[in-house]
Automatic annotation (TrEMBL):
Organism: Pseudogulbenkiania ferrooxidans 2002
InterPro entries assigned: Na+/solute_symporter_sf, Put_Na-Bile_cotransptr
Higher taxonomy: Bacteria, Pseudomonadati, Pseudomonadota, Betaproteobacteria, Neisseriales
Any Pfam family matching the protein: SBF_like
Domain of life, per lineage: Bacteria
Tagged with keyword Transmembrane: yes
Xref: PANTHER family: SODIUM_BILE ACID COTRANSPORTER 7, SOLUTE CARRIER FAMILY 10 MEMBER 7
Full protein name: Bile acid:sodium symporter
C-alpha cells in the first residue's frame, strides 16, 4: 500500500510522537537521570562514529574552512542579537516583559552542538566543518554570551561562566571524535559499510535529546505557568526568528558561492540555539530573577528548531549526491 502524500516522513512522525510522549509521560526523578546518561552516551557514540568515518584530510579541510565558520559566527552572535533588538516593537506586544527578556537571552546564546551536527549529517552536508563550527560556537559562547546579555538586556551581578562547561564539551564531544579518528584505521571500513547504523545513531540521539529536554520543560510547568495568549505569541516570535535566520543563512551561503554541502552546514549551524548551554547560563546571569520565564522562549525555540530542521534535513537528504559530498567518505 502506497504511503499517503500528506503524511510526513517517518522521522518527523517520530519527533511528533516523542513530543507527545514527553508531554503526557515525561521522565522524572531517577528515570530522568537514566535517560540523561543514555543521551550522553548516545551523543558520545555519535561523535566517535563520525570520527571513525571521516578521513583525516576531510577533518583538516573542515577546520580550515574559515569563510564558512565566519558566516556561522556572524549569524549566531550578530544576526540573532540584531533581530531580537530590532524586532522589539513587533515582538513585545505578543509576549510578557519577562518572556521578551528571555527572547533577548535566546538571541545571545551559542549554537547547539549535537543537533547541528546530527542534522548536517542527515542532510549529507559538510560534517567536518559542522563539527568544528558548532563546537567553536559553543566554546566562544561561554565567554561572549554574558557580554551580549549585558549589552542587550541589563548588567546583572554574578560570576563568569565556569570552566566546567568547557571541560564537559571536550569530554562529551571532542574526545570521542578524536578517539574515532584514532580508531579509524581499524574500524573505518566497517563503519563505511554500515552507514545505516550511523543514521540510526544520528536520529536516535536527536529523539533522546527531544524527549529529555521536553520532559524537563513539562515538569517545570511549561503548559501551566504561561497564559495561553502569551504562549501563542511566543510561538509566533520563535517562528519569526527561526524563519528569518534560515532564510538569511541560506541566502548568504548562495550569494557568497558556497556549494550545497557548505550551505547545509551554514543553515543548520547558523540557525540553532543551545538549550544545554542556555539553562546553566541563565541560572548565573539571572540569579534572583524569574529564570523560568526567561528560559521558556529557549525551551520552545529548541523544540521548534528541531521539528523544522528535521523536515529541512530530509528534503536536503533526498537531493542527488554531488562530487563534494562523495569526497567526504573517501
Amino acid at each position: 500500500m502506497a504511503r499517503p502524500r500528506f503524511l510526513p516522513d517517518n522521522f518527523t512522525l517520530a519527533l511528533v510522537i516523542t513530543v507527545l510522549l514527553a508531554t503526557f509521560l515525561p521522565c522524572e526523578g531517577q528515570t530522568a537521570v537514566v535517560f540523561g546518561k543514555v543521551t550522553y552516551a548516545a551523543i558520545a557514540l555519535l561523535f566517535f562514529l563520525h570520527g571513525a568515518k571521516l578521513s583525516r584530510e576531510a577533518v583538516i579541510a573542515g577546520a580550515t574552512h574559515w569563510r564558512l565558520h565566519l558566516l556561522v559566527f556572524a549569524s549566531t552572535f550578530i544576526l540573532f542579537p540584531a533581530m531580537g533588538f530590532a524586532l522589539k516593537p513587533i515582538l513585545s506586544p505578543l509576549v510578557t516583559p519577562d518572556l521578551y527578556l528571555g527572547v533577548l537571552f535566546l538571541c545571545a546564546l551559542p549554537a547547539t552542538v549535537q543537533s547541528s551536527i546530527a542534522f548536517t549529517s542527515m542532510a549529507r552536508g559538510n560534517i567536518p566543518a559542522a563539527v568544528c563550527s558548532a563546537s567553536a560556537s559553543s566554546l566562544i559562547g561561554i565567554f561572549l554570551t554574558p557580554l551580549l546579555v549585558s549589552v542587550l538586556v541589563v548588567s546583572h551581578a554574578g560570576g563568569a561562566s565556569s570552566w566546567h562547561s568547557i571541560i564537559d564539551i571536550m569530554v562529551q564531544l571532542l574526545l570521542p571524535f578524536l578517539a574515532g579518528q584514532v580508531a579509524r584505521r581499524w574500524i573505518g571500513g566497517w563503519v563505511e559499510r554500515n552507514k545505516a547504523m550511523l543514521r540510526f545513531v544520528d536520529q536516535g540521539s536527536i529523539l533522546l535529546v527531544v524527549y529529555t529536554a521536553f520532559s524537563e520543560a513539562v515538569i517545570q510547568g511549561l503548559w501551566h505557568n504561561t497564559p495561553v495568549k502569551a504562549l501563542a505569541g511566543l510561538l509566533v516570535v520563535n517562528g519569526v526568528l527561526l524563519a528569518l535566520a534560515l532564510f538569511a543563512t541560506r541566502t548568504a551561503a548562495r550569494k557568497l558561492g558556497f556549494n550545497k554541502e557548505d550551505e547545509i552546514t551554514i543553515v543548520f549551524c547558523g540557525s540553532k540555539k543551545s538549550l544545554a548551554s542556555g539553562i546553566p547560563m541563565a541560572n548565573v546571569l539571572f540569579a534572583g530573577h524569574a529564570v523560568g520565564a526567561i528560559v521558556l522562549p529557549l525551551m520552545l525555540f529548541h523544540q521548534v528548531q528541531l521539528m523544522v530542521c528535521a523536515v529541512l534535513a530530509q528534503r536536503y537528504r533526498h537531493r542527488p549526491e554531488s562530487p563534494a559530498a562523495a569526497k567526504q567518505t573517501i
